[in-house]
Amino acid sequence: MFSKILIANRGEIALRIIRACKEMGIETVAVYSEADENSLPVALADERICIGAASVSESYLNKKNIIAAAEITGAEAIHPGYGFLSENADFADECEKNGIVFIGPSSKIMRLMGDKENARSTMLKIGVPVAPGTGILKKSDDPAALAADIGYPLLVKAAAGGGGKGIRLVNCESELLPAVSSASAEAKGAFGDGSVFLEKYLTDVRHVEMQIIADSCGNVVCLGERDCSLQKKKQKVLEEAPCPSLSEDLRRKMMDCAVRIVRETSYTNVGTVEFLLTPDGEFYFMEMNTRLQVEHPITEETSGIDLVKWQIRTAAKMPLSFKQEDLQLKGCSLECRITAKTTGTITFFHGPGGARVRFDSALVDGMTVLPYYDPLLGKLIVFAETREEAVRKMETALCEIAIEGIETNINDLLMLVRSPGFVSGAYNTAYIAELEDDSEK
User: 3 Cβ partners below 8 Å, 6+ apart?
Assistant: First the structure.
């Protein structure tokens, strides 16, 4: 086991990893930008080192400075959290070259699954269903002819990256070329790769993802699913486990498919296989996230498995201590992403409490919400034995949170959890947009 780990991230996920390391008896190193010097993760880590200015390109995306910080402090491994360098295969290579363990899958599998078009091709080879689409568009291709074969509506999708960037919905031919151009430009700016492809836009679907853990000894376990259909502009807003519309038979089929993908690609560490689920029970591979997910806590609540600790253990070549048949998924867990709508100083903060109510956050009174980083302030997670109780508990917890000094999305989340479609569980990926349209009428 490692004796010291450097956390190449900030905010709530850096704090989450620090706490897991402390419970495992592992020393931690926090790297930080000049803007984050007084943050909670920096204060709670055993060591801390500044890696650059506030801009992410000069700090949290600065591979050279992060590697140097690990070498200076004697960290044996780097945990990337999510975002930033967590799915950067070049960074994983740099870690290996410098004798540092990257806590995640190999750079080879990151390249394979991180490129969405390559991932599609791989799924087709191993017999996993994917939505109709194309390969990466070439200069010699006729996008209009390819789109006509697929049929509208369709999506223009960036081959690299994630987080909803580089994706455009196209409803007719006149929208196609502008969408290809803008999606490519956004992908180039965000990921350094402007490659895009076309994919059929499936309507009335749910976004269901399967959480897996695979060790270096060939053991693979699926920890069940999360429903991530509640999205706004391709960004997840509220997630729940389990999916309220999934039958046990369909759950088993999707879990088996996720495990097969992991085995066929020789994937190791924690990862997530994402599917689109149609109302008639058909499911299609969408992508694989080769990192810890923002929404991982709800799986921890329903499975009793600490995903961050098992990320660290599998990176240290430790075998899983449990098998698929040992896993017992229980109850219902919901997560709301609390985000900032404005920047500024937090003048007052009060977090929620109660049994099985968890608020993963690095918020403190007096801290400044900066414009340089993701607006996520924290993740509110609740667990209950039934979904009905979990929904009531989430509403109660949202009413208890108080964040003053900036504008947040808490009222939007309250409207969502009180809406009939969410309470009944009868929602899909278009639900939030429809709910907002109805509220404006």
Answer: 26, 27, 76
